[in-house]
Amino acid sequence: MTEASEVTRVALPRLAFPTRRLPPLLAFTTSHILEPPGHILTRLSRSRTSAAIAATAFIATATPLFGAATASATPAGGCQTATVQYRLVDSAGKPVDADWTSQGGFHQWSAAPGTVEVRLAPGQTVGEGCKYPVSLAEYTTEGPNWYTSGLQTLVDHATVYLSAKDLPGADEAKQTWQKLTVKAPDCYGQIDLYGDDVVYDGGSGEGHGPAPYQPDNVVTPYHLIAAWNGGRQVVHPRAAELPHAAGLSVHAGQPEQPARQPAARGRDHSP
Question: Where are the residues of the annotated region Disordered (predicted)?
């Protein structure tokens, strides 16, 4: 029989905020793993910083990779949950600010990430053939934060699959880790790190999902790990050179399209 790999899907632990109906905080039990299909976690408010109280966990769904008919890579029930770690690195591969973290639920980056390294946290046992997807996506937006983000358009996307080889070993200093990089926004933008391999671009068909859209409370990507919102206004490239004598009223700092005002909606809704 041909050995098949299994892809897992991420389920982030839920944080105890009063705006949501939540199970117990440390919900890493079998009952949490066996939640009904489609019961997914959504983005918490982007204006709120993350509480550093939860690990980023992956949950096995035993979905064969590359369309394999039988997921037989691991015995006795297939892939198990795992914990991912991530950090920001510079162009030379050196850590930026904090080193590895498993902080999950939601973490707001203060600056646009350049390159994100990911690995599985040490001390775990990962079955042969088990793969854990982690993705990074960059969107253009209409405003510098989640509440003013308005229409979002996917610009760049990257996915890696973590496996047993992405666990730290005895000689960790000599190991290399998988990296995720997307284009830096040249205007208002949003960058999301999340734990599945769906492309949230508004496309149809397998592997695609709805693009994030705050006015309608479309809080994708699901399984969010960390995110950034920010950037600058779109400036017309020749706005400063246009002659005022022609009767035009143009300001160099004026955006091509005004940002949407924040919608009068709740901070978060469960799916």
Answer: 248-271
